[in-house]
Amino acid sequence: MNEYRKVTTNTVEKLRKILKNDALLIYDDTESLKSYSNDESGGEYYAHMPEVVVKPETKEQISQIIKLANDEMIPITPRGAGSGLAGADIPIFGGIVISLERMNKIIEIDSENLVAVVEPGVVTNDLCRIVSEKGLYYAGYPMSVETSFIGGNVATNAGGSKVIKYGNTAHHILGLEVVMPDGEIVEFGGKRRKDSSGYNLLQLFIGSEGTLGIFTKIYVNLIPQPGKVVDLLVPFESVEKAISNVAPLMVETKSLPSGIEFIDKKSIYYASKYTGMKLPYQDEVESYLIVQYEATSLQEIEELYEKGGKALQKNGAKDVFIADNRSNSEKIWRMRRNWLESLKAVDPYVPTGDVVVPTSKIPEMMKYINEVSNEFKIDIPVAGHAADGNLHPAPLKPKNLPPNEWKTLSEEILGKIAMKAAQMGGAISGEHGVGFIKKELLKKTKPKQYKWMQEVKETFDPNNIMNPGKLF
Ligand SMILES: Cc1cc2nc3c(=O)[nH]c(=O)nc-3n(C[C@H](O)[C@H](O)[C@H](O)COP(=O)(O)OP(=O)(O)OC[C@H]3O[C@@H](n4cnc5c(N)ncnc54)[C@H](O)[C@@H]3O)c2cc1C
Questions:
Q1: Which terminus of the chain faces fewer neighbouring Cβ atoms within 10 Å, N or C?
Q2: At what angle do helices 59-72 and 9-19 cross, to 10 degrees?
């Protein structure tokens, strides 16, 4: 365990000199510091106060701050939008939080090379919107698209609802400029699409959760806008029927939807209360799939959704509702996107599991989650990216249980589900990352890799300055 030093007034003075603008630093202001003490992973019991928050505007400032932190043995926690669900941006040792919120420029949209070059604090949806004005498409689409930053997406290797067709964030990143844990600024990859010269270190940084360096520039892959989008809302009388439709839908129609989302009855109940919306058959069915198709022509999209709709009905869907305009699509997605918010409205302590299994194993995984729910007598609504085998069980705290007891119990429940996923050939996290909440599970499920990961960390960050306590 490293011995970290406290931030002193002398350290703060040095930070002020680096930033040259008092508005870029928060110190000695408990209320403002508190906004940087937690993410969205669950209760207040996970929060930890930073000693100082800095909001640099340039890579050079970040480099100098990191050099200072090394000299003074002060831990650094990089922070994006704070929408994480694993505690990865919580400053558990205090120290300096480096917020990337001021580095929010779209530097270049290079239509010729189909690449956008952006700073890490760009909100993901802003990137999607701005490139779409040029007929281009960024295919990363976490459900937090309206709040999370692209830098946070890269650092967690975020997934979302379009992974089955386009891949997770790792598939969209061509290059990174990184301020390393010793303050050196290094580029990995760039606008080029291929590079087989040596180990692929670029990919090592994707999903590194701020433990190997801070991204200051991101080269993002773009594709032409598909143009046509259709969503199908598909109610099912049982969870098993819904889930067992996922793989056959793709195989039988020989086509990939851009997403297949799953949402169960309990989740719909809370989402409906929260949004004030009601879905067809809501009181009669046990679950829904939302299937999205994207294509470049009207004819192509019609063929896709007709084939898909027929396959779903043949395999037991109660009905298939087609949303082929933006307003109807938005109604469907509002329920799904607001899933977590609607649970937080009834239980601010709700944690979100993030297990992933091979797609064919989702029915077994769902059955197991149900068994755990019965064993612990805890309500566990589930939603997820069904096409990727990625489910989010979200246990709800019984009203009278004290938060600290709930912390232990909910970690036990989600730990059990995560271990089962790993035994089934899956993993303890599909897209939210490990942070500090799941690090024991990482160690248990990947013991050999864990050791190598530690060695990588020691090579890049011998002082263990960058986001300590995360992953390890
Ligand atoms: C309602 C809701 C829905 C969500 N849906 C999804 C979903 O569909 N798919 C999904 O994958 N996730 C989802 N998430 C989780 C979360 O939005 C993602 O993990 C997101 O990628 C985090 O981005 P952020 O900018 O908020 O980063 P933060 O939470 O602030 O940080 C996350 C990690 O990134 C590191 N980091 C941030 N910026 C940098 C940088 N520039 N350089 C190095 N490290 C950095 C931090 O240190 C931390 O380790 C959801 C969250 C919520 C609240």
A1: N
A2: 160
